[in-house]
Amino acid sequence: MSTTVTTHAIGASLDRLDGALKVRGAATYAYEWPLDNPAYLFPLQAEIAVGRISGVDASAAEAEPGVLAVLTHENAPRLASTRDAELAIMQSDEIAFRGQFAGAVIAETVEVARHAASLVRLDYQARAHDVQLRSDRDDLYAPDHINPSFDTDSIHGDVDAALVSAAVTLDATYTTPMEHHNPLEPSATIAISADEGLTIYCATQGVHVIRETVASLFGLDPLQVRVISPHVGGGFGSKWATHPDVVLAAMAARMVPGRPVKLALTRQQMFIAVGFRTPTIQRIRLGADSDGRLAALAHDVVEQTAKIKEFAEQTAVCSRVMYAAPHRRTTHRLAALDMAVPSTMRAPGEAPGMFALESAMDELALACDMDPIDLRIRNEPEVDPESGLPFSSRSLVACLREGARRFGWEQRDPAPQARKEAGWLVGTGVAASTYPVYRVAGNAATIRLGSDGRYAVLIGAADIGTGTWTALTQIAADALNVAVADIDLQIGDSALPTAAVAGGSAGITSWGSAIFEAARLFRARLESEHGGTVPAEGFEVTAEMPGNPYALPPFAPAVGAPPSGERFSMHAFGAQFAEVRVHADTGEVRVPRLLGVFDAGRIINAKTARSQLLGGMTWGLSMALHEHSVVDPRFGHVVNQDFASYQISANADVGSVEVHWLDEADPYTNPMGSKGIGELGIVGTAPRSPTPCTTPPVSACATCRSRWTSCCQAWRCRRTRS
Ligand code: MOS
Fold first, then answer.
1. Whose CA is nearest to atom 4 of ligand 1?
2. CB contact at 8 A, 361 and 372
3. Cβ distance 625 to 653 under 8 Å?
4. I want to staple 682 with a disulfide (CB 3.0 to 4.6 A). Which of 181, 193, 194, 620 is the partner?
């Protein structure tokens, strides 16, 4: 075998290898495994926001024909560990948030389970609850660190002094709402308990993380737990960590040993059990000279966590890397509420954080009377402003320029509300995208060359709809310098070599690095042990990368990163352009055109990459215009917990979405030269210019001339100038 790659599988626009299976309905999703004699599970959810269960009457449910068992805290299996209070369901009579799993019914059919669940009576002693995020709360606290392992606060220089002496300043507060993940496939689990342990079929972003969590909760050796998840209908972070639904299914399986217990969350339950994006209140202060050169950048964030478990989103971390400013300050403060635990949702941190930073940069451009692209280029840092490290590669400026050229930026009229066409105000906007290149340690991969000349490549990776099956096969082909058709990839099973979650856009980097290492070892050992000739019985090699892949929670940090991780700051970048039309009479918003140009390193598969970035941009549009989970403070729950009332951008809302990339390999990120693309696309779509509705105007901004109606409060101008 040659070590010179001649196959060029990486970069090809290959069709999804699992595509035919999926369109034929033959790809088995978690709930669909054809197992004998299944039982069905339906959860009971707490009807108070906080307090305790004072009484249980399950007699009517238990009398229902077909009911196998009713679980409550009184009889549920005891967990070996209750350290993770989100997962320690039914371990006491305490209720921590409305909708928390407080029990469940196991029955012969799903209909009986659901009906019987409605017959279980739980009595409560409620206590006063606290579910409102406000920036003036006196109990905000600084977490020990923020996700994945960043400093909570970072202060360089003297922001306050620099703001006083700056020629142009901006002080604006941006808020983003709570949002919920809604993958096509709601979370689903089948759990089977047997003497040897637990088998779990579930929809997950990482089989090994589920294995580790479940094993520790149930006091098992990890090897006694098998997790199988070859196909997943979207995750977006909702399937990144173990959630209580998997624990509930495993508990129920323990109650009916030998029978597969099936649990599919309803869409409504997806709004309570699998995490959400925290709402944020972000104050940004910028100080610049009259040429737009930043002297000061402050980004102070208030967001929420749950009383029972901390989740500290890294909202302002983007402001540590984007722009050069000698005086910088980023802080995070949390309110611990009587609500479910927030979690990772596509680009946690960057998506809401860049909404604020990039909106502020746009407003600063107006205040400085500068083109917003020129303003960004003027503040382009030479090295990572925070660490002083050089970037492994950073082509933000090239993305801005290429995007401007393709979008026709030159033709725009920069003045707000300058263009009106047939009753529509036509505006254009630009914002930057960024996402870190996370690399998760401890992945392993096996390569087995069979006597049939085919290469089995084994790694417990996840394809959550992103194209992992295809991209990893391409990577393996180039790593081994053989044809894609000669590779049989196996993923999605904890019996395969250990793999990190599909999360933090780190999957391909982490798994692909292990596959490249396995291929290197394969060649080296074949040479040293067999003189380069494959033995008749075949040949197998496993590579184990150093480090711990189960860095739990809240987010897998890049522990044990290769030495280059300390020499370079690694990030993907992009520039997004939008044409937005606002009807002058009705305030209706339309987005006929989105265009993004991305620096995501080398692109592994042009077809699946385009889908990823296009999906991210579309979700960014949805974030900007539609998505908003509404909490009723009287009861502490999300009221719009279904697709009738939680709005998501649909086909009719999406115009042209153009995706481009520079396709420059990064020499340091990983052997492929790629950067993550799963989250980059959503970052930077949402920021906006303050230029929407005019009629009927209720107020006008003194400085930018924008006028605002009561119907578009979300777009109101918050700019103040000193
Ligand atoms: Mo993703 S939100 O990093 O699971």
1. 237
2. yes
3. yes
4. 620
Nearest 5°: phi and psi at 100?
Answer: -55, 145
Between CA 301 and CA 140 the distance in angstroms is 11
Measured in degrees and rounded to the nearest 5, phi and psi for residue 395 equal -120, 40
Instruction: Count other Cβ atoms within 10 Å, centred on residue 610.
Output: 19
Does ligand 1 have an atom closer than 6 angstroms to the CB of 240? yes
Higher-pLDDT residue of 695 and 109 is 109
For ligand 1, the distance from its centroid to the CA atom of residue 85, given in whole angstroms, is 21
Q: 190: closest CA among 249, 243, 140, 135?
A: 249
Atom of ligand 1 nearest to the CA of 205: 4
Question: Cα of 347 to ligand 1 centre, how many Å?
Answer: 6
Let me know if 421 is a catalytic residue.
no
Q: Ligand 1 pocket check: which of 187, 277, 346 to mutate, most ligand atoms within 8 Å of Cβ?
A: 346
Kindly state the tokens that stand for 20. Answer: 């035919």
Distance from Cα 237 to the centre of ligand 1, integer Å: 4
Task: Give the per-residue pLDDT at 390.
Answer: 94
For residue 710, the model assigns a pLDDT of 32
Length of the chain: 722
pTM of the model: 0.93
Burial 92-126 (b: 16+ CB within 10 A, else e): ebbbbbbbbbbbbbbbbebebbbbbbebbebebee
Cβ–ligand 1 contact at 237 (below 6 Å): yes
The verdict on the CB of residue 345 being under 6 Å from ligand 1 is yes
Tokens representing 385 are: 């402003």
Ligand 1: nearest atom to the Cα of 504: 3
pLDDT in tens, 528-587: 999 999 999 999 999 999 876 665 333 333 433 334 446 899 999 999 999 999 999 998
Specify the amino acid at residue 659. Answer: V
Angle at 284 between CA 281 and CA 285, to 5 degrees: 150
3-class DSSP assignment, residue 271: helix
342: Cβ below 6 Å to ligand 1?
A: no
| CA of residue 510 to ligand 1 center, whole Å | 14
> In angstroms, rounded to a whole number, what is the distance separating the alpha carbons of residues 215 and 224?
7
Within the chain, what is the greatest distance between any pair of CA atoms? 82
What is the per-residue pLDDT for 595?
98
User: Rounded to an integer, what distance in angstroms lies between the CA atom of residue 37 and that of residue 246?
Assistant: 20
Q: Each residue of 416-438: b (16+ CB within 10 Å) or e?
A: bbeeeeeebbbbbbbbbbbbbbb
Site of tokens 């009595």: 123
- Quote the Cα angle for 215-221-225, to 5°: 55
Residue showing tokens 């989250």: 679
What is the average pLDDT value for the chain, to the nearest integer?
A: 92
- Provide the 10 A C-beta neighbour count for residue 453: 10
Residue 263 amino acid letter:
L
**Residue 515 CA: distances (Å) to CA of 105, 373, 518:** 44, 40, 5
Q: Which residues of 540-572 are buried (b: 16+ CB within 10 A; e: fewer)?
A: ebbbbbebebbbbbbbbbbbbbbeebeebbbbb
- Rg (alpha carbons) of the chain, rounded to whole number: 26
Contact criterion met (CB below 8 Å) for 228 and 35: no
Does residue 311's CB lie within 6 angstroms of at least one atom of ligand 1? no
Cβ(344) to ligand 1 under 6 A?
A: yes
Residue 683's SS3 state is coil
Does residue 135 contact residue 281 with C-beta atoms inside 8 Å?
Answer: yes
For ligand 1, say whether the CB of 314 is within 6 Å of any of its atoms.
no
Which residues 6+ apart lie within 8 Å of 220 measured at CB?
Answer: 197, 198, 214
